[in-house]
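User: I'm new to structure prediction. If I give you an amino acid sequence, what do you actually give back? Let's try with this one:
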Amino acid sequence: MLCKNALVVDDSLTARTVLKHQLNEFDVIVESACDGSHALELLRNLTPDVIFLDHIMPGLNGFEVLQQLKKNQSTRGIPVVMYTSQAAPQYTSEAKSLGAIGVIPKAVSTEQLMLVLDKAELYQLEAVNADQHTLSEKTDATLSSQPIPAPLQDEALQEESAEPLKTSAGAAKEPIKITEDDIRKEAAQRLTNQPNPPAKTFSLGGALAASILVLLVIAQGYMLVKDRQQQQVIASLHQQVLQQEQLLLDTQETLASEQKRIETEHRELTEATWRQVQFVVDILLDQIEQG
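Assistant: Good question. You get back a string of structure tokens that encode the predicted 3D arrangement of the chain. For your 291 residues, that looks like this:
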């Protein structure tokens, strides 16, 4: 369970104590505030996993505190549950429109409390998932704006032009005889005088940009994997919430049916008792008349 810490805001010490005891059974550590102003002051240095907020309190009421929580960047992501005796459907609708994830009564059952804690956990995971989507969008923007390093180009090798053979003026009139040894000597001289080709060099800026690009791609892939895992967890939790809601509805229907049966039995028993009393009275009256 992600909900390890809770803040209970209620001007009633009894209500705070009862809810704290119930939350402790789920291993949830509880901090308390006696009114809305005290809660806002605590939240400057406290970040609970869920807030249980009473409605009718001195000073700021529950809806006013809820509005301030959702306006503040540091507290807007904390799931808030209204903990109040208000039970009208219109109140629940208004509370959810202001940002509350649910409404529970002061006499909350263990099943209802478990259900609302699961909703708070689901709310937290969806908030984390939304933050990761935002981070992924920022990463995509960074990748699109990152300059792609230019491909490294090899410097062209330039061949030296062969120098013409120098001959003396007197020998110009005679035909030049080129032997096999002359050809070998000239080839060896050219190889000796040939400059070494320039080595391939990497630009420091290009290598750094390539490294950053690789790291960003790896980070984006990691976030996509984590996003899939969290999507699966969210779907599983959502299914659990639906199952618990259905179980709660079935329990309520069973209780209603049992209550109706008890009322019927009570009515039948009462009618049978009155019939017996009437029978005894009739016998007594007959005896009195005969006597």
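You can read the tokens as a compact description of the fold. Here is one thing that stands out. Helices lie at 13-24, 36-42, 62-71, 89-97, 110-145, 180-193, 204-290.
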